[in-house]
Specification:
Layout: H1 2-32, E1 37-41, E2 45-47, E3 52-59, E4 71-77, E5 80-86, E6 90-95, E7 101-107, E8 114-121, H2 128-140, H3 143-159, H4 166-182, H5 185-206, H6 209-218, H7 224-237, H8 242-259, H9 264-281, H10 286-302, H11 308-315, H12 320-335, E9 337-338, H13 341-352, H14 369-374, H15 386-417, H16 427-433, H17 444-453, H18 457-478, H19 484-497, H20 499-517, H21 520-528, H22 537-552, H23 555-576, H24 581-605, H25 610-619, H26 623-648, H27 654-672, E10 674-675
Parallel strand pairs: 2-8
Antiparallel strand pairs: 1-3, 3-6, 4-5, 4-7, 7-8, 9-10
Length: 677
């Protein structure tokens, strides 16, 4: 009986022990003998026919990547068995998708399923954001909102065009695009330049320096021709911003041109065309500063080695429209001739004198009122011309010095890398060895181009704008024009004046980023290649820029949308067409020049352009009359520019092309112009 109980107890003890061991094993076994886990990384979307790369990482017992594993493992991928090779615990699987889909991965001999969702975006969707920006700008004549909405729609395309993604897309515009473009030092350099130039303009205007400078120069006017030449010279002198140029020169020269019976239409024409041409050709203007940043971003995307300044400098040889417009203006003044409706206006002015046009004041609602406000001096007693001249001289000289200093430093490092036996980093040593740079002799102007081209344009912008602002600030205090508090307030007001332009820049950079993420340039290149010859791209760029600027009245808007899109496209199409590097560069430089040139032509013809409106107001000219008299001149120069462009396709030297255009202008003025004494 005891043996029975003993055996029974033994059985019970064994059973309990088995249960305990089983329980402990259930806790231990998953850690010691767990199935292999994997971690998958895949893009949220792919565009067009690009490959989706899915990275598979093998995990160890601790759940961390197993970098010691090398071998092959089978996976059922959408039920098809594939063998993937792991190297240091990682494998890569690539596939293409024709539509949005879910990809399933099931390791062989396991039951676990891994689901990967990838969205497929048709490549034609990539051009929706820039097209939307253009369409909205044309409809509403407002660029900032149009740019923001186009970026917002671009983000929605990336994360999913669904109602639930509206708020996430809005937030991503801020944190992933606007914030990202503001991290770029080049962008921050241009923003700082714009702010400081705005502050400098406000100071030299309010302390009376600009008025004093204009009065000083305008004193040389003694006839109708000299009054017009003085207006032209003044407009070229105030080259750094077209708004300031128009308002200062137009308002100041109007009494003088009235005295010598120069028509208000002719005054408006001179200030409008010269201001825009000077702003598009000058090295350190608000327009070209923005242009060079767009060029830098585009060439960085293409991984080109040339600096933005070097590319801009080389593109000037193709800037036919603004150059020819300046030549036409000078030729008309010197010859005392005009044609078409301008000739009638000039004849009437000489015979009947100048009448106040009673301009339609409703157009003033379209201009930048802050700019108008800061240009009025604090005191009506005038100011010292040196208060304006000296800061402007400092702006120019410091910018050139910045390019020389940074260019010298960069060339020195390049020479060391090439094994050139240079012993000093000073300018004279670098200049001397430039003759042997790249194992070739180069001329004085080529050396100068190398020096400036290797300079840091953005550092030069910062040095020059800060130096000119500080100079204007100190001169204002030194001459006791304004108190310290008032001087500071005016400077900050000048900062605010540039805010709208800076917002346009920020949103345009964001649009460029979104179009790059959507691969818009690749899609456009693939569509256009074979249908448009690369040599015709500059003409297309000119017409697109002119149409956009004419419809919206905005050069900034045209640059914002067209530069990030057309510059890379022109390079890709030219390269894919089998053109040489030199020919590809030539077409790209031409496109860079024609976008800004076409934009200038567009605003010269546009009745809604800020520049033409300001020209009408500053000259007190009837706005419609200003457009009617200016339009024939703008159209004439546009036709000459297109004609000369076709000669450039035959690879004539740029000096010949400019000379040809100049001869055509002289002939037109000579045989079509009507002499007005």
């Amino acid at each position: 009986m005891r043996d029975y109980y003993f055996n029974k107890n033994l059985i019970i003890m064994r059973g309990v022990l088995f249960l305990i061991v089983s329980f402990l094993s259930s806790l231990i076994t998953p850690q010691l003998y767990a199935k292999t886990d994997y971690k998958f990384s895949a893009p949220n979307y792919i565009i067009g026919d690009e490959f989706a790369e899915i990275q598979i990482v093998r995990l160890n017992n601790k759940g961390t990547p197993d970098s010691t594993y090398n071998g092959k493992t089978g996976f059922y991928i959408n039920q098809d068995l594939k063998v993937l090779e792991f190297i240091q615990g990682k494998a890569l699987y690539t596939t293409t998708l024709l539509k949005s889909s879910e990809i399933t991965f099931k390791p062989q001999n396991q039951t676990t399923l891994y689901n990967i969702k990838i969205r497929h975006l048709p490549d034609w969707l990539s051009i929706i954001p820039p097209l939307l920006a253009i369409a909205l700008s044309l409809i509403f004549h407002e660029v900032i909102t149009s740019l923001f909405l186009s970026v917002f729609v671009g983000v929605l395309l990336l994360i999913g065009f669904e109602f639930s993604n509206v708020i996430p897309a809005f937030l991503r515009v801020i944190d992933s695009y606007i914030l990202e473009v503001l991290r770029d030092s080049k962008h921050l350099s241009l923003i700082s330049f714009a702010f400081m130039v705005g502050g400098m303009i406000a100071l030299i205007a309010k302390n009376g320096g600009l008025t004093g400078l204009v009065n000083k120069i305008s004193a040389i006017a003694h006839s109708s021709r000299s009054a017009q030449l003085t207006t032209l010279f003044l407009s070229l002198s105030i080259f750094f911003d077209n708004y300031v140029n128009i308002l200062i020169v137009g308002n100041t020269m109007r009494p003088i041109t009235d005295k010598y019976k120069v028509s208000r239409e002719k005054l408006a024409f001179i200030v409008s065309t010269t201001a825009a041409s000077a702003a598009s050709l000058g090295f350190f203007t608000t327009w070209t500063g923005a242009e060079m940043v767009y060029v830098h971003d585009a060439t960085s995307y293409l991984r080109l080695g040339n600096s933005a300044f070097s590319i801009f400098f080389k593109s000037l040889q193709y800037a036919y429209y603004p150059i020819f417009m300046l030549i036409l203006t000078f030729a008309l003044i010197v010859s005392r001739k005009d044609f078409n409706k301008m000739a009638d206006a000039e004849v009437n002015a000489r015979s009947a004198g100048i009448k106040n046009e009673q301009n339609d004041k409703s157009i003033e609602k379209n201009i930048e009122r802050d700019i108008v406000e800061i240009l009025h001096p604090e005191s009506q007693n005038g100011g010292k011309w040196i208060n304006a001249a000296f800061p402007l001289i400092v702006l120019f000289i410091t910018a050139i010095a910045g390019l020389i200093v940074t260019g010298t430093e960069n060339l020195y490092q390049k020479m060391l890398g090439k094994g050139i036996p240079i012993t000093s980093q000073n300018l004279s040593s670098v200049w001397k060895f430039l003759y042997d740079f790249d194992n070739k002799n180069i001329s004085f102007f080529q050396k100068l181009g190398e020096l400036f081209g290797n300079g840091d344009f953005y550092i030069a912008l910062l040095w020059s704008s800060f130096s000119s602002l500080l100079t204007a600030f100190l001169l204002t205090l030194l001459h006791k024009n304004l108190t310290l508090k008032r001087t500071t307030e005016i400077m900050i007001h000048g900062f605010r004046v540039m805010l709208s332009a800076i917002i346009i820049l920020i949103f345009s950079w964001s649009l460029a980023e979104i179009t790059e993420d959507l691969h818009a340039t690749e899609y456009l290149s693939s569509v256009i290649t074979g249908y448009i010859k690369p040599s015709l791209l500059p003409i297309v760029s000119f017409l697109l820029a002119a149409t956009f600027a004419f419809s919206t009245g905005s050069v900034w808007g045209a640059m914002a949308i067209l530069y990030p899109l057309l510059v890379p496209v022109s390079w890709m199409i030219s390269a894919s067409s089998g053109l040489s590097i030199s020919d590809t560069e030539s077409i790209t430089y031409n496109v860079i020049a024609t976008i800004l040139s076409g934009s200038v032509f567009g605003i010269h013809c546009s009745p809604v352009s800020d520049s033409t409106i300001m020209s009408s107001i500053a000259s007190d000219c009837n706005h419609i009359q200003h457009i009617k008299t200016q339009l024939p001149y703008a159209a004439t120069i546009a036709l000459i520019s297109v004609l000369v462009f076709f000669f450039s396709l035959i690879n004539f030297h740029w000096i010949f092309n400019l000379g040809l255009g100049t001869i055509l202008i002289i002939l037109i003025v000579k045989f079509s112009g009507k002499r007005v004494e």
